[in-house]
Design brief:
The structure holds 2 protein chains of 2 kinds. Chain A is α/β, with parallel strands linked by helices. Chain A contains 15 helices and 10 strands. Chain A has helices at residues 2-18, 39-53, 71-80, 93-101, 135-144, 159-170, 185-194, 205-214, 259-273, 276-285, 294-315, 330-357, 368-394, 397-412, 417-438, and strands spanning 29-32, 62-64, 87-92, 112-127, 150-153, 179-182, 200-204, 217-222, 246-253, 288-292. In chain A, strands 1, 2, 3, 4, 5, 6, 7, 8, 9 and 10 form a 10-stranded mixed sheet that branches. By secondary structure, chain B is mostly helical. Helices cover 74% and strands 1% of the residues of chain B. Chain B contains 20 helices and 2 strands. In chain B, a hairpin with a 4-residue loop joins strand 1 and strand 2. In chain B, helix 3 (41-52) packs parallel to helix 13, helix 5 runs antiparallel to helix 12 (299-322) and helix 6 packs parallel to helix 12 (299-322). The chains are: A alpha/beta, B mainly alpha. At the A-B interface, helix 1, helix 2, strand 2, helix 3 and strand 6 of A face helix 2, helix 3, helix 8, strand 2 and helix 9 of B.
Chain lengths: 444, 492
C-alpha cells in the first residue's frame, strides 16, 4: 500500500522536528478548545513549538475540541482528563463569557488554574469611509438612536460583545439596546466591517493592526489603560469613556491532580514563558506578556468572572435574550411544523399505497423476500456496532474496531472467519498506529 | 513591475531543484493525510505546519502551497471509493463517484476528479494572479442580505435533487433543517434543542450526517438487502481511466465548475458545500441524461471536483489581499504566515512581493505535481474495489468510525454516527432521498442566521433583500430556477 510509504515519510519528518532536543518531560498534551486557526489554537501551537524546541517537553501534541466558546472542550476536559497530570488546556476570558452565555453546567471553578499567559487589547474601528470620525461621533449617534448603530464582532457572549456592553453601560445607554451582530470567526466579522455591513467593528488589536496600517480601517479607541508605545490610538478612558478591558488567555489543568503534578506543570509553564522561542512569538503575534500564577491568578479569575457575569446579564445574552429585533422562535417552529407535516404525510401516503395494491412505494424494488433474508446479516452488523460503541472507551480503539470489522465482514460472508479476523486486526492496528502514533491524534 | 514580470520572478524562485522537492513533499504529505477520514484540510495543514517551521520562508511557502492543494484534493479519494467523504467539499462527489466505483468505473471517476482539480486549480490560480484586488473588493460588498439570497438560490437548486417523490424529498429536507436547529443560536448565544448535552451545543457536524447516511447507511442496507447472497463481481473495465466518451462529458463540467467555484470561494462566507452542490445541480439541469445522475454520471464528479478546487484557490484571494481567513484552513495558513512575521493583508503585496509571488508560482507548480502524483495512483486506488465485499464493508465501517471520532474526539459523535446510519438504512428502504437532508443541515442555519443578521442591521426593515441589487439578482435566479422548468413544461 502506497499510503504506508507516505506514512513513513510523514513519520520521518515529524520525528525530525520533535526529537531534536533532549527532554525534561516526556509528553505534555495541549488541548485547544477551539477549531484550528483561532486564538486558542494559535496559543497552543506556539506553546507546542516553544516546549519542543526548548527541550522542555519531548512531545507536546495539540488536540482541538472546538465549539461553543470552549465550553464543549471544558466539559470534556473535566470529564475525560480528571486527575491526569500530563495535560493542559488553553482557556481565557472568552470561555468565561461562554460559560455564562451558554449556561454551561461546568465552570472554571471546576478546573485547576495554572497560569495566565497573554493578553490582547480590543480596538473599536470603522471603515475609512465611515462618517463617524471619532469616538465622540459614535457615542453621539449611539445615544441618539442606539439601534441605528450596528456593532460587528465575534461570537455572542465573547470579548467583543462584552466590550460593546461595557461601553454602552459607561455612556449611559442600556446595554440591552446594543444592536450587536455576532459573527463566527475573524474573517467573517472583518469582512463585514471592511465592507461597511455594520456601522462599527470590535476586534483584537492584532487582528485589526494590518488594516489600520494600510488605512482601510480607522481606529476610534483602544481598550488599554494608557496609550501603547508606538501606537497612535487614543484610549477609551482619555476620551471620557471609563472602560479598561483586556482579552486574556490562560492555562488550566484537570481537576483532582496531585500537588506534585500541579507544581510540575507550573514549573514547566514558567520555564516555557521565559524561553526565547516563546518571547519571540509574543512579539510576532502582538500578544502582551501577562504571566500570573498561584493565588493572585485565582483572585484575578474570580474578579473577572464577576465582571463578565454582571455585564452579560445587562446585555441579556443567552436564555435571557430580549434585545434581538427578530425573535429566534419563529424559524424553529416553522421547521418543526414542516417536519411533522411532511413526516405524517409520508407515512400516511405510504400506507395507503401499500394498502391499495400491496405495491411497495419504493422504486428501487425492495423485494419482500429480501427483508427476511437480510434480517440475520443486519442483526450481526448491528451487534458489531453496539459492541464497538460499548468497547471503544473501555477496551480501546483497536479491539473495538476489530470486533466491528469482524462482525460486519461475517454479515456479508461467513466462510472465512480466520481471514476476516486477521484482516480486521491488521486494519485496526494500522489505523491506530497511523492516527495515534504518527499523527499524534488521540484515540481511545 | 507588472504582474507578469513579478510572476516570472516568482517562478524563477520556485523552479529550483530543492524548491521543487519541497513542493513535491508538500503535495505528497498533504494528499496522504488529506485522504484519511475525519482529517479535513484545516487539520491536515495544522498537523503538517510544524515540519515547515524548520525551513527558510521561501521553501516553507512553497511547501504550504503543496500541502494546501494536496489536502484539498485528498478528500475525494475516499469519497469516490468508499462513499466516505473526508471533508464537506467532497460530499457532492460521493453521490455519483461512489456509484461509478460500484460499476467498476472508479478509475474514470478518480481520473476526472484529478484532471478536473488540475484544470480548475490552474484556471483559478490564473484568476487569482490577475484579478485578486478587484475580486476582493467585490466580495466585500456581500452582506447578510446577499448571503441570505445566495442560500435561497441554493435552496431552489436543491429542488432538482428532491428525487422521484416531491413529498419524500421535502420530508428529507425538513429532517436536515430540523437537525440544523440543534446547537447555539449564533446571534444570541442561546442554546437550542441541545437537551443539556454540552457536545450538542455546537450542532451536529455535517460530516457525521453524511458519513452516517452515506457510508454506514449503505453498509446496513447492503447487509439487509443482499446479506450473504453470492454477489456478482464488480466488472472492472480496466484501470486506464477515462474513455473518449468520458472526456467529452467531462470538459464542460470542469470549466463550469471552475466558473461556479472560484467566485463563491472568494466570498468570505463561502464554505465548499454551496459551490460543489450548485455545480452538481447545474450539471444535472444541463445534461441530456439527467436520469443518470445519482447512478454514476461522470459529470456529477467532474463538476463538483472542479468547483471544489477552484473554491480552494478562491479562498486565497481574500486571505492574500485583505488578510481575511474565510475558512478554517485559511485561518491556519494565516497563522503560518504570522510565524514568519508576515501579515497577509493590504500591505503584503507591497512589503514582501518576492514571497507572495513565489507562493503564487508554487501554487501553479503544486497543481502540476498533484496531477503527476495522482494519475499513476488512480490505478492502484481503483483496485480497492477488488477487495472482497465482506472486507470492503468492514473497512468502510472502521474508517467511518475513525473519521467520526477524529472530528471532535467525541464518543457522542460516534454514537450519533450509527444512529444516523440506522436512519439512513430506513430512508433507503422507504426510498427517501438522502441528499436533501444534508443540504437542509447546511443551508438551513445559514439562511436563518443571515436573514436575522440582515434584519437586525436594517432594524426590522424587510425591504433590504430587494433593494440591494446583488441580493435581488440572486432571489430572481431562485424564482426562475423554481418556476422556469414548470413554465417550459406547460408551454409544451
Amino acid at each position: 500500500m502506497t499510503s504506508r510509504a507516505f506514512a513513513a515519510v510523514t513519520f520521518a519528518a515529524l520525528a525530525l522536528v520533535s526529537t531534536a532536543h533532549a527532554q525534561s518531560l516526556d509528553q505534555l498534551r495541549l488541548i485547544a478548545p477551539a477549531a484550528p486557526g483561532g486564538g486558542w489554537d494559535q496559543t497552543a501551537r506556539v506553546m507546542q513549538q516553544a516546549l519542543q524546541r526548548e527541550g522542555i517537553a519531548r512531545l507536546a501534541p495539540v488536540e482541538n475540541i472546538p465549539g461553543a466558546a470552549g465550553t464543549i472542550g471544558l466539559a470534556r476536559f473535566i470529564g475525560a482528563e480528571r486527575t491526569r497530570g500530563d495535560v493542559l488546556m488553553v482557556s481565557g476570558l472568552i470561555m468565561l463569557g461562554g460559560i455564562v452565555t451558554h449556561q454551561s453546567p461546568v465552570t472554571l471553578r471546576d478546573v485547576v488554574p495554572i497560569a495566565r499567559l497573554t493578553g490582547e487589547y480590543e480596538v473599536i474601528a470603522v471603515p475609512a469611509a465611515s462618517p463617524l470620525r471619532s469616538l465622540q461621533d459614535l457615542i453621539t449617534a449611539f445615544k441618539a438612536q442606539p439601534g441605528s448603530i450596528s456593532w460587528g464582532g465575534g461570537s455572542a457572549g465573547g470579548s467583543d460583545q462584552i466590550l460593546a456592553g461595557l461601553v454602552a453601560d459607561a455612556v449611559g445607554v442600556d446595554p440591552k439596546r446594543v444592536n450587536y451582530i455576532a459573527f463566527s470567526g475573524g474573517g467573517e466579522s472583518m469582512s463585514a466591517i471592511l465592507g461597511g455591513t455594520v456601522s462599527v467593528g470590535i476586534n483584537g488589536f492584532a487582528e485589526f493592526a494590518p488594516q489600520l496600517e494600510a488605512g482601510t480601517l480607522r481606529a476610534l479607541a483602544i481598550s488599554s489603560a494608557e496609550r501603547l508605545p508606538g501606537v497612535d490610538i487614543p484610549t477609551l478612558r482619555e476620551q471620557g469613556v471609563n472602560v479598561e478591558f483586556e482579552n486574556w488567555r490562560s492555562l488550566v489543568a484537570p481537576p483532582g491532580i496531585t500537588p506534585a503534578d500541579r507544581a510540575r506543570l507550573e514549573a514547566v509553564v514558567r520555564a516555557m514563558v521565559q524561553s526565547p522561542t516563546w518571547r519571540e512569538s509574543l512579539a510576532r503575534y502582538r500578544w502582551l506578556d501577562r504571566y500570573l500564577d498561584g493565588d493572585a491568578l485565582a483572585r484575578f479569575v474570580d474578579a473577572e468572572e464577576a465582571r463578565v457575569r454582571a455585564i452579560l446579564k445587562k446585555l441579556g445574552t443567552g436564555a435571557t435574550t430580549t434585545s434581538s429585533i427578530v425573535p429566534s422562535g419563529a424559524y424553529p417552529r416553522l421547521v418543526l411544523v414542516g417536519l411533522i407535516g411532511f413526516g405524517l404525510a409520508t407515512i400516511w401516503l405510504g400506507r395507503r399505497s401499500l394498502g391499495e395494491g400491496g405495491r411497495p412505494e419504493t422504486s428501487s424494488a425492495v423485494a419482500p423476500s429480501a427483508s427476511s433474508a437480510g434480517a440475520a446479516p443486519l442483526a450481526l452488523v448491528a451487534t458489531g456496532v453496539v459492541l464497538h460503541l460499548f468497547l471503544a472507551e473501555r477496551a480501546g480503539f483497536v479491539i473495538a474496531a476489530t470486533v466491528l470489522f469482524w462482525c460486519t465482514a461475517r454479515a456479508f460472508d461467513h466462510r472465512h472467519p480466520v481471514r476476516d479476523a486477521v484482516a480486521a486486526l491488521a486494519i485496526s492496528l494500522a489505523s491506530y498506529v497511523l492516527f495515534a502514533r504518527v499523527l499524534q491524534l488521540s484515540l481511545p | 513591475m507588472n504582474t507578469l514580470e513579478l510572476l516570472r520572478e516568482g517562478f524563477a524562485n520556485a523552479l529550483t531543484w530543492p524548491h521543487l522537492g519541497w513542493a513535491f513533499a508538500g503535495v505528497t504529505l498533504g494528499t496522504a493525510v488529506g485522504v484519511l477520514p475525519g482529517i479535513g484540510p484545516a487539520l491536515t495543514v495544522a498537523l503538517l505546519l510544524p515540519i515547515t517551521f524548520t525551513l527558510d520562508p521561501t521553501s516553507a511557502f512553497i511547501m504550504f502551497g503543496g500541502i494546501y492543494y494536496g489536502a484539498m484534493y485528498g478528500g475525494s479519494t475516499t469519497s469516490i471509493l468508499l462513499n466516505t467523504p473526508g471533508e464537506t467539499a467532497s460530499i457532492a462527489t460521493a453521490i455519483d463517484g461512489y456509484a461509478m466505483a460500484r460499476q467498476g468505473r472508479g478509475a474514470a471517476a478518480l481520473t476526472t476528479a484529478a484532471i478536473g482539480s488540475f484544470v480548475a486549480g490552474t484556471l483559478a490560480t490564473i484568476a487569482l494572479t490577475f484579478f485578486s484586488p478587484l475580486l476582493a473588493s467585490v466580495a466585500l460588498r456581500f452582506g447578510p442580505a446577499e448571503y441570505f439570497a445566495l442560500s435561497i438560490m441554493a435552496f431552489a437548486a436543491v429542488a432538482t435533487l428532491l428525487g422521484g417523490s416531491l413529498l419524500h424529498g421535502l420530508f428529507s429536507l425538513f429532517l436536515g433543517l430540523t437537525l440544523g436547529l440543534i446547537g447555539i443560536d449564533q446571534l444570541t448565544g442561546d442554546a437550542r434543542f441541545s437537551f443539556g448535552i454540552p457536545q450538542l451545543l455546537d450542532g451536529i457536524d455535517v460530516l457525521i450526517l453524511v458519513i452516517g447516511l452515506f457510508a454506514v447507511g449503505e453498509t446496513l442496507f447492503q447487509a439487509w438487502r443482499y446479506g450473504r447472497q453470492e454477489f456478482e463481481a464488480v466488472p472492472v473495465r480496466g484501470f486506464v481511466g477515462m474513455s473518449r466518451e468520458d472526456w467529452k462529458r467531462s470538459w464542460k463540467p470542469w470549466l463550469r465548475g471552475t466558473a461556479i467555484g472560484f467566485p463563491l470561494g472568494v466570498l468570505p462566507v463561502g464554505g465548499s458545500v454551496i459551490p460543489t452542490f450548485l455545480s452538481y445541480t447545474t450539471e444535472k439541469r444541463l445534461s441530456d441524461r439527467p436520469e443518470e445522475f445519482g447512478h454514476g454520471a461522470i459529470e456529477g464528479v467532474a463538476g463538483p471536483e472542479a468547483a471544489n478546487n477552484a473554491a480552494a484557490a478562491g479562498v486565497l484571494v481574500p486571505l492574500l489581499t485583505l488578510g481575511l481567513p474565510s475558512s478554517a484552513t485559511a485561518a491556519v495558513l494565516l497563522a503560518a504566515f504570522q510565524q514568519y512575521g508576515l501579515q497577509p493583508g493590504p500591505l503584503l503585496f507591497s512589503s514582501r512581493p518576492d514571497l507572495v509571488w513565489t507562493l503564487v508560482a508554487s501554487l501553479y507548480i503544486g497543481n502540476v505535481m498533484l496531477l503527476v502524483l495522482n494519475l499513476p495512483l488512480v490505478g492502484i486506488w481503483a483496485r480497492v474495489m477488488l477487495v472482497p465485499r465482506p472486507l470492503l464493508f468492514g473497512g468502510i465501517l472502521v474508517l467511518a468510525s475513525l473519521g467520526a471520532y477524529s472530528l471532535n474526539r467525541s464518543m457522542l459523535d460516534l454514537t450519533l454516527l450509527y444512529v444516523v446510519g440506522a436512519v439512513g438504512w430506513l430512508m433507503r428502504v422507504y426510498d427517501i432521498p438522502l441528499v436533501p437532508a444534508v443540504l437542509g443541515l447546511v443551508l438551513g442555519p445559514l439562511a436563518e442566521l443571515q436573514f436575522r443578521r440582515a434584519v437586525a442591521i436594517s432594524e426590522g426593515d424587510l425591504s433590504v433583500f430587494v433593494t440591494r441589487p446583488i441580493s435581488l439578482a440572486f432571489l430572481l435566479v431562485a424564482v426562475a430556477t423554481l418556476v422556469g422548468p414548470w413554465l417550459v413544461k406547460r408551454r409544451r
